[in-house]
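pasting for the record
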Amino acid sequence: MSPILAGIVSGALMGVFFDLLTLQAMLKLRKDAPPWLQNVLNQVSFFRLVGPMALFTHSGWTFAGLAAGTFYAVLDGDNPSSGLGSPFLGFTIGVLVLAFIYLIATAMAGGRVRGWMMPSPVVFAITFGWVLPLLSD
């Protein structure tokens, strides 16, 4: 599979996981909503609030996958090094560094959402660090 198409598939897969995590967080927040969310839910139904967010985040992750696939195609040489179960070790290490930054940003986020979104950087590392290179080879 071409690296760009593999990036799109990986991004779409990340989007699905992120949407599931966001939906889980929003469903739990709806039961015990903070005042700002309760005010929003009094004006708009839950699904009218979550639907556009899911579409936006999913398309955003798909675009991020397109960018990652393009970046992978540009970096992929004739003899890339392999390791850590990935055919291109340098790319995977770069993704792991980005995932660590993503993890720090998620950990610094306050409130109850932090606990529900902590798996997201791990899924990011798996989908872009391993799934994308494996699909593109």
